[in-house]
Amino acid sequence: MDISEVVKRSGVSASALRYYERRGLIRSLTDTGTRRRFAPTVLDHLALIALGQAAGFSLDEIRLMFTPDGSVALDRNMIAAKADELERLVKRLESMIEGLRHAAVCPAPRHSECPSFQKLLRAATSGALERRERSGKDEAQVSRPSGVATIGRRKAR
Amino acid sequence: MDISEVVKRSGVSASALRYYERRGLIRSLTDTGTRRRFAPTVLDHLALIALGQAAGFSLDEIRLMFTPDGSVALDRNMIAAKADELERLVKRLESMIEGLRHAAVCPAPRHSECPSFQKLLRAATSGALERRERSGKDEAQVSRPSGVATIGRRKAR
DNA sequence: ATAAAAGTTGAAGTCAACTTCAAGTCAAGC
DNA sequence: GCTTGACTTGAAGTTGACTTCAACTTTTAT
To answer: Which among B56, B45, B40 has a CA at the least distance from the CA of B16?
Structure first.
């Protein structure tokens, strides 16, 4: 398959494919300068990459999921750790959702006077809640996507 | 309070405080060149900023939560929309966790032969799962934090 | 045969939220 | 009065995952 075929079938952009190749996540059968040709298995690889990203793995971590010959070899401890991590994240998000929903209907004239809101604030500042990141521009949908909190404190220094 | 006092009490770094001030999220009583003095209410502001960040709002969005005079004025529709968004995210994360847990114990010699894993892959590639971001270095904990998927497709353009 | 479309490369740009740096200012203790 | 140490500023650097650009080369269609 040529690159445009892979783009069509995978939904991954050509520049991302080239980037993945440079980073060692996928391979193509190519002499430099000529056009890339991909084996059909690249689609499976891209699927695993997408899965890994959705689960919160970095590209470096995802690369470890492939053996040098290109087959899949998941580190089960790594996977389980990520699942645990996601679970903790979900718990925090759930209390966050509850708090936000309350804030949206709270009858108190000022949120600073509402006990539930105070509790939310304390949960956000003390304890485990931390930085988050967010993506760039999105398209013409009404509701905008966003990123989500990470766990764990950053070092001051 | 001077800046070091705010750093101590809030846990927010001095450079972040200056950054927030430049971005218009907090205010200080200062003639340029001299040292910043913060009113005690800055701590409440910082708490709200931390909450907003944990919920996935950008700094620009968080700025909208403050009126020009510095009091809090939450847009309830915005809050409710964010709660909905987090809820969708949680649902996706939950199926992701389930899939990961399965992958970690799956008896199939190759994941590509496991039907549950196939299903996970399909869920990750087709449909709503998208890019994610992740934070920088973290401290000496065993398990590493990470970011999480966002919703919504980016334009090919 | 040739023009346009599609592909190639390395380098630089993007985004958000900060951090780090360099160079200078100010304040407090001895 | 002078050395620290805390603070100030604007500018530039960081991170991850890409995208965009400029300048070419290669196919494909006419």
So the answer is: B45
